[in-house]
């Protein structure tokens, strides 16, 4: 299921990029860089937080108690660094995939 959702997010990202909408992973990675401006880091951190909140409310990610907002941003930074082959894709989709991989929801019956 997660694989199909990730594929759907990537498909949306490709569609959005083809139409020229939104930020891509390269721009977001530059904005989250520690050498970038404080304003851009704050903006993209808020972007990550908003997507994380939306995914959690939708039941697509299960973020454990105690996980900080900085950790959420760190997960996305790590994903972008580990997957430069995808950074031309839409930042929203990349953020979603990074968070879904890091904070999957356990299936009912699994401990």
Structure description:
- This protein has one domain.
- The protein is globular and about 40 Å long.
- It is built from five helices and no strands.
- With 111 residues, the protein is an all-alpha fold.
- Helices cover 65% and strands 0% of the residues.
- α1 runs antiparallel to α5, α2 packs across α4 and α3 crosses α4.
- The longest helix has 20 residues.
Summarize this entry quickly.
The chain is mainly alpha-helical.
Topology of this protein?
Blueprint (H helix, E strand, L loop, with lengths): L1 H18 L5 H8 L5 H20 L11 H14 L8 H12 L9
Helix pairs in contact: 1-5, 2-4, 3-4, 3-5, 4-5
Low-confidence stretches: 13-20
Mean pLDDT across residues: 85
Biggest sheet features: none
Q: So how many helices?
A: 5
Number of strands: 0
N-end to C-end Cα span? 18 Å
What gross morphology would you assign? globular
Give the total of domains.
1
SSE ordering:
HHHHH
Instruction: Please indicate the percent range of residues in DSSP E strands (runs of 2 or more).
Output: under 5%
Helicity level: 55-70%
Radius of gyration equals 14 Å
Provide the structure class: mainly alpha
What keyword list fits this structure?
single chain, 5 helices, 111 residues, 0% strand, mainly alpha, globular
